[in-house]
Design brief:
108 residues; alpha+beta; four-stranded antiparallel sheet
Length: 108
């Protein structure tokens, strides 16, 4: 079962965007994407609020996510969160899709 984590980072004076820029410049994003079990690690910027950044983080299973949380990368990420004084809202979704009919509504 894949697990998707949505993290909304919020700061002041565009600090959430600066956090993302530093995540990229330090190579942390690429390192996370190369971790075993990582399926997606992408940042998005809502048009309505320049102080918020959305991270969509997807893992193959709980074991992969647990390994990520115990990795040295998490210490670096935590330090950056503190540096930019970011607040976080977290949503977690478990993808246990065996069948669905939504595809007929999709345009490809």
């Amino acid at each position: 079962m894949a697990i998707t984590i949505n993290i909304y980072y919020e700061g002041k004076n565009k600090s959430a965007r600066k956090f993302v820029e530093e995540m990229y410049s330090l190579g942390l994003v690429d390192k996370i994407r190369r971790e075993e079990g990582n399926l997606k690690y992408d940042y998005y910027f809502p048009l309505e609020n320049e102080e918020v950044v959305l991270l969509i983080d997807k893992w193959a299973n709980q074991e992969a996510l647990d390994k990520h949380h115990l990795s040295p990368l998490m210490d670096e990420i935590s330090k950056l969160r503190e540096k930019y004084d970011l607040k976080m809202k977290v949503e977690r979704y478990v993808d246990d899709v065996t069948s669905f009919n939504d595809e007929k509504y999709s345009r490809k």
